[in-house]
Amino acid sequence: MTVRVRFAPSPTGHPHIGNIRTVVFNWLFARQNNGKFILRIEDTDRTRYVEDAVKVITDSLTWLGLDWDEGPDKGGPYGPYTQSKRLDIYREKAEELVAKGLAYRCNCKPERLEKIREENLAKGLNPMYDRHCRDLPPDAVAPNEPHVIRLKVPLEGTTTVHDELKGDVTFDNTQINDQILLKTDGFPTYHLAVVVDDHMMDITHIIRADEWLPSTPKHVMLYEAFGWEPPIFIHVPLVLGQDGKKLSKRHGAVSIADFHRQGYLPEAVFNFLSLLGWSPGEGDEQEIFTREELIERFDIERVNLAPAVFAYDKLDWMNGVHIRNMSEEDLLHKLIPVWQEVGFISTPVQAEMLRKLEKLVPLVQERLKTVRDVIPLTDFVFTDIEMLPAEELIGKKMTVEQSIEALQKTQALLATLVNFDDKEMEQPMRDLATELGLKAGQLFTIVRNAVTAKTVTPPLFGLLEVIGRETTLRRLEQAEETLKSLLDSQAEVTD
RNA sequence: GCCCCCAUCGUCUAGUCUGGUCUAGGACACAGGCCUUUCAAGCCUGGUACAUGGGUUCAAAUCCCGUUGGGGGCACCA
């Protein structure tokens, strides 16, 4: 039997990492079993529909490399894959249950329902429908008057859900509501639609979040009512926010699009998500996985039962590892759009600039946690700098005069270098430091501060090469002037 | 309120099913050190956890029960 799993989001906004972690599990499971991964849009709530949500969802999946075999855009043998286009099917199925006496029409007003709900809550009971319409004569509610169709839940006994991870979970039928299957507007509720579609689309494994476990007995009842074999249920734990609560729209910015925007790599996010609730175990302590390794190694049976808190620290580290593991060329192509976005370089990239960028990549590679980090690390290469205040241009344990001299000698040296390149300038600069009676670090720091206007940068000489001789010399001179004015002003004070 | 799920370092987790090799292992973060032109990266070192009470057993992080704690669900939302 071919494994068929699905991701069935409702188009109400951006999918967040909690949803997507569950998608990762589904996708991994499908791929490692040579099965099918299906995308189905559950747009049965017209009040919550968000216009571009489907596109946001597909873009997020695509960015993460979670490709689907059947879906609204792709089609497939089980379509349509958008529930709003399957309304006739749900109606027919609901009517079928009414005909069988397993469901009934209900025309109770929302106000009445709300009243019952409050009364029950006040009495400490489950806030359930009082089944007012359940035993009305079959023609009490005319098919053409506004009404809903409800499931006739057994009044006694228990319903057991077999979950692949948790084992048997038994629910008392008296705690289960006569669930609405078909709404007044003719749309199905989630419970009807999901059961009908999962069955009709031959879904073999339902891998979804724990929040669905309490409603699963209703689904089991529906499978029984239709006379269908239920799929295998696998409820995986939720992903919690830093506050220990279920992730949701109003919690931290955790949509997949945000991760993209913030400079995380899809392979790192994918790697991280797959380890949120799963680990290889059995003594294997590997943390960094490629997509292929994950497909091979992932084991749905080993998914942890406890919910996991999503924390950025480890993702940042993991993203850095993936950046370091990339080839310089691949990284370059991740960095170019970042530089373009902030206007440092043009689109398309000029040939001469491209050569500079290639030089920059190895300089920044091991210093990046996200690709966006490249901005503050290299801005002074592309834009004019604002000279640091004079005090910060003075070398460590040095006088202003000494610092000025160091800047002058450096300019003289760099002006005469035959090739203005990284390797050729280092040794002469070290010699210069010795000549000036300075430690190399003292001299380099002065130059760094003067040319980059930062006290922390990637390796200096590589940067100077990319910045170029002309700009480097100009900035050194400006720094020298700045220090000289400091000297002058001090002299005035002394006078 | 009722129902359900869960429980190992701050966080992600290994170990739990198949009790002993666990004075509990790894990773992130943190602290200290080495390296070093700054920052990173890398390497070394360190601290921190089996929620709790009771069983079962020669022996329990591992099995059972209670308690506590956390989470989820109880819609004409998914």
Characterization of the model:
Among the domains are: 327-382, Helicase, Ruva Protein, domain 3; 390-494, Arc Repressor Mutant, subunit A. 46% of the residues lie in helices and 9% in strands. Helix 14 runs antiparallel to helix 18 (469-494) and helix 15 (422-435) packs across helix 16. The strands form five sheets. A three-stranded antiparallel beta sheet has the order 3-4-7. It has a two-stranded parallel sheet with strand order 1-2. A two-stranded antiparallel sheet has the order 5-6. It is mainly α. It has helices spanning 17-32, 53-64, 87-100, 110-122, 190-200, 216-226, 256-261, 266-274, 291-297, 312-325, 328-341, 351-364, 374-382, 400-416, 422-435, 440-452, 460-467, 469-494; strands at 4-7, 36-39, 103-106, 148-151, 158-163, 167-172, 180-182, 205-209, 232-236, 239-240, 308-309. A hairpin with a 3-residue loop joins strand 5 (158-163) and strand 6 (167-172). It binds one RNA strand of 78 nucleotides through helix 4, strand 6, helix 5, strand 11 and helix 10.
